[in-house]
Amino acid sequence: MSEEREITAKFLVEDLQSGWDEKAMPSELTARLLIGARTDLGRVRENNEDKFEFYIPSGPAAQGAKGSLVAVADGMGGHAAGQIASELGLKTLIQRYFADTHADVPGALRMAVREANAVVYDTASIPGRDGMGTTLTAAVVRGPRLYVAQVGDSRLYLLHGEVLEQVTEDHSWVAEQVRRGLLTEDEAQYSPFRNVITRSLGNQPEVEPDIIEREVCVGDVLLLCSDGLSGVVQREEMEEALLSQGPSEACQSLVDLALERGGPDNATVLVARIEEMLSVAAGESVTVPPACAAEPAQPEQRSTSKEGKKRRGWFHRDE
Predict the structure, then answer these.
(1) Average pLDDT over every residue of 186-200
(2) pTM, to two decimals
(3) What is the set of domains in the chain, with CATH numbers?
C-alpha cells in the first residue's frame, strides 16, 4: 500500500442522503435533541485520541427515516495512530449509515460499523499505523426508539426519570471476568489487565458489534463517554450531574471532575437530551405529548453473533 494514501476520512455532507427517495421513507415520530459535548487531553497523555461526532439530518422525512446519530470513540495505538483510528471510525460510520437508503436502522447501523472497521483495519497496514484501533459507542434516536452499536469499552448510559442505567457492556477482559463471577468490581478496578480490550475497530478484519434497542421518551438523557471518564467518575456522580444541569454544563462538570482526580486518560463525554417528539404529517411537524414519559424503560434487546465473538482479538491499551 502506498504511503501517500489518504489516511483521514473525507466528510462531505452533500454525499449523505443523496440517493434517498423521501416519499418511500416511513412517516413516523422524530425526536428533537439538545446536545452538549466535551473532550479533554487529561493530565497524563501527550495527545488526545478520543473523539466525538454527531449528525442530525435536515428535514422531518429524513429524520423520521434515519433518526439522529451521536457517537464517541477512544483511539488506541499510540502517538497519532489512535487519533486517526477514532476519526476514521466515526466519520466512516456516519457516512455509511446515512448513505444507506433503507429504513432498517439496526441493519444499517451494523453494516456501517462493519465498514468502519474495515477502513480502520485497512489503514493499519500503512507503515507506522500497525496496531491502531478504536472503541466505538454509537446511538441512533429515531422517534421513540433508541438503537445502540457497541464495540470496546466506551459506554452509553440512559437517564430515565431519576435513574441512570448503563446500557452497554464493556468488551474488556476484566468486564468479562466480572460477568462470569470470577472478579469483583473492586478487583476489576485494580486489575493489571484492566486495559485489555477484547473487541475494537481495526484489530481484526471483521467485527461484530452489540446492537441494543430500547424505548425512549421526552426528557430521557443519553450519556456517551470514553473510559477516561467512566474509569474515575462514578455512575451516581454522572446521575447527579444530569439531573441538576443541562447537557453542556453536565459535560463540563463531569470532565472537570475527571481532571480533579488526576486525569489519567483522555476524557470525553457527550450528552443528548430528548427535548420533544415531533410527528411527520403532510410535510409538517407538530409537537406530540410525551405519552411514554411515565412508563418504565423497556427491557433491552442485544444482538451478538457467535461467529463475531470467535473473530475478536485482544488489544492492550497503552498505559
Answers:
(1) 69
(2) 0.84
(3) 28-316 (3.60.40.10)
